[in-house]
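Example 9 (inverse folding). The structure is encoded as follows.
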């Protein structure tokens, strides 16, 4: 750890060495400052190269310092010293060059990058703004609108794109370190003039106002992106020193904010959830190369694409040639879309399409190391398929189901190898959504489970371990949330008000807009198979009656809302409102005014109490896992940290009291005060974050 100083002729090479991705901690900041200081006084040194160990530059701040007060030297001072150097300083960029890493590069007088470099300022993802000059230097170098887009989105640029926008001076294929040393050898002190980014003219603010609306919309209540935009504006309007001071002030204020705490929580929660259970530490994954996917419908095709993108060869299996052709055509269309949007080259898309083959014969799955079933959601269908797989799959193949709700133990029991069976529950669209619930059935073997985690890693999914129950973690928790949303309607709210309260909290969509999108008929049909008493009928009166009228939501143009032809515009459906009025009359409920705050609290307590039950039952291993599920799969705003973090930040005593109160209400039977709240309030037990 630290910075290695080496000389190559007259060039002092400073290599930041903090494996695996060289984040900047105190030792690295000090090392850079010392190196730059040495260069100023040593007459043999003509120029400096800053590089990172293992051909990676600097991935940002050291997470060990997250949430703590960093010790001097502070990064802005180190970067100012780099920029003020009389000897030219060249950044040699490979791999991640993010956050503080890019800010260091912006302090240099020239930037060379190799093809694998990723350059960005992702601080907004942690509820922050860049704190070491990024918001002031980047707009001076590449112009305000492009800089604002990079900083407010937090999305990195690949080396080629960075060259196109003027962020780097040269793109080299490989060995950027060697190239930077060679380039630095051609430079003299006089070459520094005009290359100090802070001294470049203030950028033009044109185009920034137009960005404001879209930044605010995408932020969904997160503060950091708009603060970052404000700082880019500052860069256009004030001198560098004043801008830097304002940036520092904003950075320090955000660092201790609730949103930054929530986002740090999610960051660590995601990292923790990616590891297989501790009891299988050291257990090796089974080798996986060829993967079978059964069912080439919505989910099967998305799963196949995700697997191909992760480098696997895929065999898609369908019931007949027509269904298979439709599935393969959908795969092709998705890749063509990626090419059209310049996300992928034509050659790369062609190669991926070739990785996915199709068959209607189970024998084609004989070579597969993992088989993921994504056929109809019916126990009979799944039992039949797994019985067939038991005959054709090779010994040791992992057999997974993408079922949303069904009992995986029962599915496993149809095979002679229940130890190989588990759930891999993807979310739609499966090639895009990151969340993957890995469901451990009663007899799932450790190495089968570890294999699923390994596939998640290779395909860049966010895994979360779950146990078997109706709906696993995410869908099971929707019960409480949707029930409360439905009851709020009866009590006096209308669908639009409930949805507005939930989106006002920061969700991507409200529960009734989601219902219209997913199809009101889906819930209606699934309730037909549910035991009476397993759901609250009063909460679904409006849904049921809409379904009976054939108003299923977006697909029929009418549901809780009425939709324009392109489903973009929507207005409340008067028929839904009149169904609601009738239901209130029938049940003798007089409507009252319900605040947005009550709506949010009721719906989110519905999530929280079901989440607490999952922890008590051992279906979810950690409260933080539940937060990962909700922020990655259900549109819960990341800057609020997930339902379990939300309840804890409001106070578990408060949550307990509220649930106690709701338990005495007309629908009180649905509310049980979780026993684990008492220990959670003391920071102990499964609720502890
Ligand atoms: P879908 O109807 O779009 O696709 C199912 C496909 O499976 C069809 O193409 C069908 O021809 C094929 N199929 C049916 N029986 C088969 C068999 N015996 N052998 C081979 N192929 C067969 O359904 P979907 O939405 O893709 O859902 C598939 C599974 O994924 C279900 O279990 C569902 O609960 C689950 N799931 C769906 C979603 C979602 O949002 N759609 C999300 C997560 C999980």
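The amino acid assigned to each position is listed next.
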């Amino acid at each position: 750890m630290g910075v290695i100083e080496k000389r190559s002729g007259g060039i002092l090479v400073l290599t930041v060495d903090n494996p695996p991705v060289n984040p900047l901690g105190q030792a690295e900041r000090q090392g850079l400052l010392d190196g730059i200081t040495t260069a100023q006084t040593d007459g043999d040194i003509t120029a400096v190269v800053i590089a990172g160990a293992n051909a990676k530059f600097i991935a940002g701040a050291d997470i060990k310092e997250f949430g703590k007060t960093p010790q001097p030297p502070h990064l802005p001072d180190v970067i100012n010293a780099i920029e003020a150097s009389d000897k030219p300083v060249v950044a040699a960029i490979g791999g991640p060059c993010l956050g503080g890493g890019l800010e260091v590069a912006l302090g240099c007088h020239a930037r060379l990058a190799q093809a694998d470099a990723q350059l960005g300022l992702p601080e907004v993802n942690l509820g922050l703004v860049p704190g070491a000059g990024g918001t002031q230097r980047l707009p001076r170098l590449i112009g305000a609108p492009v800089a604002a887009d990079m900083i407010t989105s937090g999305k990195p640029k690949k080396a080629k794109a960075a060259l196109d926008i003027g962020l780097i001076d040269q793109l080299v294929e490989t060995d950027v370190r060697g190239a930077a040393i060679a380039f630095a050898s051609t430079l003299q002190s006089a070459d520094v003039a005009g290359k100090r980014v802070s001294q470049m003219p203030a950028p033009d603010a044109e185009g920034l106002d137009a960005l404001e609306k879209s930044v605010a919309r995408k932020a969904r209540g997160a503060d950091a992106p708009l603060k970052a935009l404000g700082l880019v504006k500052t860069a256009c309007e004030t001198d560098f020193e004043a801008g830097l001071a304002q940036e520092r002030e904003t950075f320090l204020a955000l660092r201790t904010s609730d949103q930054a705490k929530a986002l740090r929580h999610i960051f660590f929660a995601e990292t923790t959830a990616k590891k297989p259970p501790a009891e299988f530490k050291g257990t090796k994954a089974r080798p996986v190369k060829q993967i079978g996917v059964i069912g080439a419908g919505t989910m099967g095709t998305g799963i196949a694409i995700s697997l191909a993108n992760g480098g696997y060869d895929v065999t898609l299996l369908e019931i007949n040639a027509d269904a298979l052709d439709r599935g393969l055509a959908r795969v092709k269309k998705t890749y063509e879309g990626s090419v059209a949007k310049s996300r992928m080259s034509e050659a790369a898309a062609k190669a991926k399409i070739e990785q996915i083959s199709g068959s209607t014969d189970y024998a084609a799955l004989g070579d597969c190391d993992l088989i993921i079933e994504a056929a109809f959601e019916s126990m009979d269908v799944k039992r039949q398929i797994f019985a067939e797989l038991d005959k054709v799959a090779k010994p040791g193949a992992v057999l997974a189901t993408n079922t949303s709700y069904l009992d995986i133990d029962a599915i496993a029991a149809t095979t002679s190898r229940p130890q190989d069976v588990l759930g891999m529950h993807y979310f739609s669209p499966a090639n895009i959504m990151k969340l993957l619930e890995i469901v451990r059935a009663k007899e799932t073997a450790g190495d089968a489970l570890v294999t699923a985690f390994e596939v998640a890693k290779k395909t860049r999914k966010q895994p979360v371990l779950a146990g078997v129950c109706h709906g696993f973690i995410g869908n099971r928790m929707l019960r409480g949330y949707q029930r409360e949303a439905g009851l709020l309607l009866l009590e006096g709210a209308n669908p639009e008000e409930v949805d507005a309260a939930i989106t006002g909290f920061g969700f991507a969509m409200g529960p009734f807009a989601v219902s219209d999108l997913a199809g009101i008929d889906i819930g209606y049909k699934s309730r037909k198979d549910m035991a009476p008493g397993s759901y609250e009928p009063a909460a679904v009166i409006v849904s049921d009656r809409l379904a009976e009228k054939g108003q299923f939501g977006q697909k029929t143009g009418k549901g809780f809302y009425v939709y324009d032809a392109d489903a973009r515009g929507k207005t409340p459906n008067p028929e839904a409102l009149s169904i609601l009025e009738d239901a209130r009359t029938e049940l003798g409920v007089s409507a009252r005014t319900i605040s947005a705050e009550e709506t949010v609290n009721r719906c989110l307590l519905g999530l929280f109490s079901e989440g607490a039950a999952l922890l008590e039952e051992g279906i979810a291993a950690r409260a933080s896992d539940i937060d990962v599920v909700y922020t990655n799969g259900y549109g819960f705003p990341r800057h609020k940290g997930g339902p379990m973090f939300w309840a804890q930040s409001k106070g578990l005593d408060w949550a307990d009291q509220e649930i106690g109160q709701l338990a005495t209400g007309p629908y009180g039977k649905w509310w049980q005060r979780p026993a684990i709240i008492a220990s959670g309030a003391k920071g102990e037990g499964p609720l502890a974050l």
